[in-house]
Amino acid sequence: MLRRSFRGATNGILLGVTESIRVLYVEDDERLARLTMEYMMSHGIEVHLVPRGDLAVADVLRIRPDVVLLDLMLPGVDGFEVCKQLRARSDVPIIMVTARLEEADRVRGLEGGADDYVTKPFQSRELLARIRAQARRSRGEAGPKQERIEIGPLVIEPVAMAVTLRGEPVVLTANEFALIHALAQRPGRVLDREQLLQLLHGAADEAFDRSIDVVVSRVRAKLELDPKNPKLLKTVRGVGYMLAPGEA
Question: pLDDT tens-digit profile of 216-233?
Fold first, then answer.
């Protein structure tokens, strides 16, 4: 089975990213894969191509990429299942690529643990920007360095991208960390979906409202004793979400 690995020619000196970005690209369309890889390589991205879903998890664990670019329609195992298996073993940022336009499919991908998505046909520049953003976020390079934040039993270390709750570590993806960090910087303040989309994605029109709901649900499952009756990450009906200071 064909696997390819290529390193970009610019040694990874990339718009605020000081190290080379390694991408594992799971795609069975050879023409699309070739064109996309050529573009990424020309911008200093190291790319490892995997043409089947059932090979992806093992290669991610072996190669340890900075970002996984994951098509949904794959031979062997589809992208939804690959994402689910990866999330059980890794917090690597996952960008899903789909030709499906239905919101339900995007929600399903995010619920399965994806951090972002692009729809086919996509613009290569947009894809590159999303890859770089996920790499920066996972390395803690997005935005200025900030001090430790403590909100009741919740402790957030922005530089280390570490979260503890009641002294126990909480494993979050880069997207989940970005959400809790954005709220923790504004304890007791309600942020609506548009504000959260802006903080997480850079622009509110780059995602859809329910993507925030999905990430909130994933974070609640990791932070709350009873996610259906949250005490820390609260919903203000009809407005948005807030992190409640002093709540257990």
Answer: 999 999 999 999 999 999
Q: Which residues pair with 50 in a beta bridge?
A: 26
Query: Smallest Cα–Cα separation from 25: which of 6, 9, 44, 8?
Result: 6
Strand 116-119 to strand 67-71: parallel, antiparallel, or no bridges (unpaired)?
Answer: unpaired
Q: Measured between alpha carbons, how far is residue 110 from residues 150, 209, 243 in Å?
A: 28, 12, 21
The pLDDT, as a whole number, for residue 246 is 63
Compute the distance between CA of residue 230 and CA of residue 224 in angstroms, rounded to an integer.
6
In this predicted model, what pLDDT tens digit does every residue of 144-168 receive, in sequence order?
556 889 988 899 998 888 999 999 9
- CATH number for the domain that contains residue 159: 1.10.10.10
User: Residue 153 and residue 169: Cα distance in Å, rounded?
Assistant: 12
Domain of 79 in residue numbering reads as: 4-138
Give domain status of residue 93, yes or no: yes
Read off the amino acid at residue 237.
R
Work out whether strand 45-50 and strand 233-236 pair parallel, antiparallel, or are unpaired.
unpaired
Order the strands of the 168-170 sheet from edge to edge.
Answer: 149-151, 154-157, 162-165, 168-170
